[in-house]
Every structure is written in C-alpha cells, then in structure tokens.
Design brief:
5 strands; single chain; alpha/beta; five-stranded mixed sheet; Glutaredoxin; globular
Length: about 130
Amino acid sequence: MRARQFLFQFIATVVIGLFFATTGSAASKPYDQAGFDAAQAAGKPILVEIHADWCPTCRAQEPVISELLKEPKNANFVVLRVDFDKQKDVLKRFRTMYQSTLIVFKGKKEVSRSTGETRKDEIAAQLAKAL
C-alpha cells in the first residue's frame, strides 16, 4: 500500500513538473546584465526570478506570475529569469543562495524580495511596490 502511494505521488510530481517545465513564464527572458542595466536606466519595474527547472516551488510560482503579468497595470514589467544552476555569478551579485527567490526593482532600487512565495496576493503586493 505504501509503495503504491509513493509511486502514485512520484508519477504525479513528474507529470506536473513536465507540464510546467514546458509552459514557463511567457513574459520572462533569460537574465543578462546588459538587459538588466538598460531596464534600470530606463526606470522600468523589474522582476528578477531566481529559477531552477527542478524546483517545485519555482514551478508553482510560474502560473501565478504569468497571470499577474497579464494585468494591464503590470504590462511594463521587465521579467528576467536567472538560471539557478548555471548563473552562479549572478546569484552572488544579487546575494541570494536559493532558487524560487523573487527580487523586485523600481528602476535602480530594490523594493521587495521573497523566497519560496507562491501566494498570488503576496506576489501581487511585491510587484505593486515597483509601480
């Protein structure tokens, strides 16, 4: 019984993970320093996502962020995704050690940071700080 339950949970996790790995955040772009600097210089609101494809919390954040970015008030956000496994230099620059970290900037000023947050109202409140 226990083995069957474990197997079911494992299969469900893999299927859900594959679904979210292929959908992703529609508006996010891979992080690059030039793009970040340009957005800051233009005074744009910026969301930096520290993301790992294998992270269930990151996968849970994706549909929430996508939905919030579709709202007209969030249309000007520049969303940059940092690959947790491949961009270690960027992690150091942002002084973060964990995937599923969201960092919000209003131009050059960091206005909000969270790790592991998946609640829509909390993420919306973070984004609102940059508007």
